[in-house]
Amino acid sequence: MAVSDKQTEERIFEAATDIFVEKGMDGARMQDIANRAGINKAMLHYYFRSKDHLFNAVFEKVAAKMFEKFSPVLDEELSLQDKIRFFYREHITFLQNNQQLPAFILNEINRNPERIKRLLKNLELDKLWMMILEKHGEELKDFNITPDLMPQIMVSIASLSVFPFAARGILEALFEKTNVDFDKFMEERKTFAADFVIRALKK
Amino acid sequence: MAVSDKQTEERIFEAATDIFVEKGMDGARMQDIANRAGINKAMLHYYFRSKDHLFNAVFEKVAAKMFEKFSPVLDEELSLQDKIRFFYREHITFLQNNQQLPAFILNEINRNPERIKRLLKNLELDKLWMMILEKHGEELKDFNITPDLMPQIMVSIASLSVFPFAARGILEALFEKTNVDFDKFMEERKTFAADFVIRALKK
DNA sequence: GTCTATAGAAGGATAGAC
DNA sequence: GTCTATCCTTCTATAGAC
Fold first, then answer.
1. A97-138, pLDDT tens digit by residue?
2. Which of A67, A139, A200, B21 could form a disulfide with B200 if both were Cys (CB 3.0 to 4.6 A apart)?
3. What residues in B contact A107, CB-CB < 8 Å?
4. Do B199 and A159 touch (CB under 8 A)?
């Protein structure tokens, strides 16, 4: 059996990821994690010492998974427009397969802002922006993009794909009466968001 | 003293709001609420029976406060463009004064999606859209706005103002190295977001 | 209505046998 | 490494005096 072949530590880690992402740090119970992993509570402490240690391990893994999805766009040899389209296709697809990640990460960061600072200490955002600006130097005259606007632009781009997943509960309640299906909505959003941003940025 | 003159129930409710919004349902402690209200734990149960009852009372009040901020825009006698500008000015100002609300509400809804459905049972979103479309009928030929796009458009508009507050912890960590100040960023966003959306929607 | 004291349950953590 | 049993703290909730 694939499951029972897995090493215990890995089984615990995966169970903990499921439970923490679903319930959050405060709502998660060590007993629930042990149950899902198919072992007893004592093993959790044997491998991870404490709930806090276990949570930190899970959070760092999960947050890294989330953030690294933002970068591959940069390497692609595409026009600025096509990069935006590429980004939303890839990013929304990723979030479709990890629907609870945005809410989990946003929430846990607000509970403990220090955590994120450790995680992002290597990220040099200003240099990233400069790379983008330089790489697409010639195209930029067609766009409303300047260095000082980069924070607003980047946050706007991320908002359009991340927010709907973070707000899924509300959106589904709102959509219920209007016969809009959330999954279909997100599928269409891959192109809608790209078009929206491109029009917003084009001169 | 204004504070000690307040009726006990109200003092409890306000203290509970502060604590629940800050820590979430699972992280909040009845003792903390009692301390902040300046009374003992027993009184919380005397007035609100249980932590669950108290939380529900707080959540419904807070969520209502959030949602009702979306509607006054509709009553204003403004062009579509000016409504969008008006919305972001008002809405971001409201969120600046209630910075923790987005993360709190998004998170608690994901933990208990049923709650939101009760709250939104009176909201008839489809009729709202129709009202907007009818009211601005003549202007619409200049915009990429059709009934079937309304869900995407409305979610996009909300994303741009709500998401940055929900993600404040991340943004501040990212901004730290680039000398961007979050408060200044949100102040500028009142006009940036409006311009962004208007360009995105204009033909 | 308000307080103190405490019941009763739950949860994180550990001791110790195997 | 893995298990059972249990410790100890924390938390919600209530009993009962005033």
1. 999 999 999 999 999 998 888 888 777 778 888 888 999 999
2. A200
3. 24, 103, 106-107
4. no
**Which of these, B66, B64, B60, B58, lies nearest to B17 by C-alpha position?**
B58
Residue A65 distance to chain B (closest CA, Å): 15
- Here the tokens at position A104 are 């989990």
In whole angstroms, what is the distance from residue A180 CA to residue B129 CA? 13
- The per-residue pLDDT for range B122-177, each reduced to its tens digit, is 777 788 888 889 999 999 999 999 999 999 999 999 999 999 999 999 999 999 88
Q: Which of A27, A126, A199 sits opposite B178 (nearest CB)?
A: A126
List the B54 CA – C12 C1' distance (angstroms): 26
Helices in A28-100 by DSSP H: which ranges? Answer: 30-37, 41-48, 51-67, 72-75, 80-96
Tracing tokens 């129709």 back to the chain, one arrives at B130
Residue B202 bridge partners (DSSP): B143
B65 — phi, psi (to 5°)?
-55, -40
Nearest to A192 among B124, B152, B162 (CB): B152
Count CB-CB contacts under 10 A for residue B142: 13
